[in-house]
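hey m, so remember when u said the C-alpha cells were messed up on ur end? i reran from scratch. heres the input so u can diff it against urs
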Amino acid sequence: MPSRVVPSRVVAATVVHPARWTRRPGRPRAAYLDNLKVVLVVGVIVAHAFITYGDVGSWAYHEPSGNDAFLVVAALAVSLGSLFAMGLFFLIAGLLTPRTLARKGCGGFMRDRLVRLGVPFMAYLLLLYPFVNWLGDLGGASFGSILGEQAHRLDPGPLWFVAVLLVYSAGYAVVRTLHQAGERGHLSLPAFLGLLAAIVAAVTVIVRLWFPIDSYQVFALHLWHWPQCLGLFVLGVVCAERGWLDPVPDAVRRAGGVAAGGAAGLVVAAFALNSDDLDPFAGGWAWQAVLTAGCEAVIAVGLSVWLLGHFQRRHDHAGPLGKALGRAAFGSYVLQAPVLVAVAVSLRGLPLSPEVKFLVVAPVAVAGAFVASWVLTRTPGVRRVL
C-alpha cells in the first residue's frame, strides 16, 4: 500500500484539480502511518496465534488450550480486536487514496490497484491459502483434494481484506471521475464522526440480519463487517480531502478515546453476563446484537481517531529499522498465514503447553513474516506487488 503522504491541503486541492499536484523531491515518509500499520499487522498476527491456541475462530491449524484463563484472554483479545482493527486498516487506506488517485489518474490508479491488490489476492486464492490449509491439515488430505475444495469454497483467508479494498478503491475512482470533490461541507468534524458512527451502527444491525458474524460468503467477503470497513474508508477519504485529521484535533482525539473506552467496557460486560450463550451477539434483533453493533461502531470510529492522533503525536519518527518495517508491513500481512502455520506445525511435537507455545509462536511468526516480506520487497518484480 502507498506510504508517502503530502499535507492535507495539497491533497484536497489535487483531488479537485489533479494537475496541480507536484512531487516534492526527498519528501519523507509519513512515519506515523507506517508505524501504525506495523502495529496493526503485528496485532493481526498475534490474534491469529491466539486463534491457533485459543480455538476462538476459523483458522487453518488449531491446537487448543484447555486452560480456561488463557481461553478467556484469547477470546477477549480476538473479539475486541475485531471491533476496530480491520476498520482502521481501511481508514489508513482511505487517507492515502485521494492523493494516489490525483497523482496517477483513474486509469493509472486502477492499474496500480489491480497489481498491488489483485495479484496477491489471486495468488493467495489459487495457491497459497490451499497450501496453508494443507500444511495445517497435517497430511490428513492430499494437496489435490484441498485444491478441489478451494475451487468450491473460494476462500482467500486473511486476504479478503485486499479484495474488499479493491472494490472500495474502484468505487471511489468511479465516483471521483464522475464527480469532483466539493468544498468543505457544513458539518464539523465531531458532527461528522457522530453521524458516521450512528450510520455504521444502524447499517450493521440490518446487514447482520442476513449475514451474522462468522457467516460464510463466496471469497469470504465478511459482509457482516462491511458497514464498519466502508464507513472507515469513507472517513479516510473525506478527511484526506478536507484536511480534517491532519492533525487530529486534541479535543476530538480525547473524546474518541473516552467514547471507545466506554463502549468497550459496555460490550465486555455484556459478554461476561451472557458468557453461556454468545450466539445472540452475532446478529438479529436480540438486544445483544444491537448493543454489539452500536458499541462496535463507536469503538471503530472513536478508537481509530484516537490511535491516529496518538501516533501523530508520539510516533511520527522512524530510523532505518522503522522504515524497513513500514515498507514490509503489507507484505507481512500477506505472508503471515503460511509463516504462522508453518511455525505452529513445526512445534506441535514439543512437550509444551499450548499457552507456552503461543508465547513462542507469536513473536517468531511476527519476525518471520516481516523478514520474509523485507526480502521479497527487495526482489525485482515482486516488490512492485508487495
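this time it looks ok to me. The chain is about 70% helix and 0% strand. if urs says something different then somethings off w ur setup not the seq
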